[in-house]
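User: Earlier you gave me the apo prediction for this protein. Now I'd like the version with adenosine-5'-triphosphate bound, so I can compare the two side by side. Same sequence as before, with the ligand SMILES added.
Assistant: Got it. Here's the input I'm using:
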Amino acid sequence: MAASVLVVDDEETARMVVADFLQSKGYEVMEAGTLAEARKIINQDSTDIIILDVRLPDGYGPHLLAETAHLPRRPQVIIVTAHGEVSMAVEAMKNGAQDFMEKPLDLLELEKSVKRASEVVAMRRELNHLRGKASLDKFIVGKTQRMQDIIELARRAAEASVSVLITGPTGTGKEVLARYIHESGPRANKPFIDVNCPAIQPTMFESELFGHESGAFTGATHRRNGLMEIADDGVLFLDEISSMPMDLQAKFLRALEERSFRRVGGTALIKVDVQVVAASNRNLKEMIANHEFREDLYYRLKVVDLDLPSLSERKIDIPDLVGYFLQHFNMRMGANILDVTPKAMEALINYDWPGNIRELRNAIERAMLLCDDPAIDVGHLPRDITSPTMLPSQGKLPLA
Ligand SMILES: Nc1ncnc2c1ncn2[C@@H]1O[C@H](COP(=O)(O)OP(=O)(O)OP(=O)(O)O)[C@@H](O)[C@H]1O
Ligand SMILES: [Mg+2]
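And here is the structure of the complex with adenosine-5'-triphosphate:
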């Protein structure tokens, strides 16, 4: 999409020369002879770039800089000064103008400047687009203070690229949070390697993690890179790290401290730069007390420690989560179920959710499959949610 340019100048001929020239270069051009006209156009259309004369009949051009600074799509401003007004232009640049040019305008120089500005505009559009997408796909719903604190801390840990330990009961979003950390930090475009520790055979753990040379053990016919190496520059997500064998915990800790390791059967030291995010729903402190988990590794991992609450501790997030899942499954299923009846919502809020967000998500998905109406009702929800056998007082919405 071509950028739109607004030319603001009270001298009609000068303005038209610029406007015609930019139009011939493929830009969408609008014109204004006064500040008032300029404001009107900016408010009505989305202007990407403004070529702005300093002295206008109804005021000082650069005032527009401050006025447009908080627009969601702040235009790029190129200031045009009369000869000898350079200090004014410098001032305008400090206030956020992109460039300045002196009169009489050199059209080729102007074109270069407009092109640079339009590149900034295109880049910003792309970023907004990506952000919009990310917020839909990887949205971490949570307006309780505890969730807000966790999200903020996760964002900082991502920026600083430090090790993170995520704990919390099953289905509370540990993996979602790990992916969020990857995506909100400088490693976003590098690998995210998801290691499901319980699925790895204890005897294979070392070679999975560090790789092996050919002939390192029976069956090792080729050299193979380990997950640490594959995750280089990115994030290594160790899911349910409590399943990592003790002897390997020591080797892994050493690799983290030294930022290097050797492949199984290899002698060369391999240097890596990985951010480790580990998750566990087991109580690691208890495991340490029972000598099932190494304390030194535990402290090495929890530079930042994020403990996710169970869903029953954050019931005020249920309506937002339900809204999020409706939208998610509407897109996936091509359905158009926009709401939940008040009775059904009450049931969802009163239920205790031992399976946390995963259970809520499954309940909504199932209800949407059964529902032919525009709203989900009690009848669409699983039995154990609508007729809980638990004490009814347990599940009241906390008024936090
Ligand atoms: N804040 C959230 N917003 C939207 N969806 C979420 C959120 N947290 C979790 N979910 C959804 O809930 C489900 C479970 O999340 P996830 O797999 O991250 O949980 P977990 O804590 O890793 O669970 P487990 O301990 O069982 O591995 C996923 O389907 C995920 O999409
Ligand atoms: Mg998980």
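For your comparison, keep in mind: Confidence is low (pLDDT under 50) at residues 391-400.
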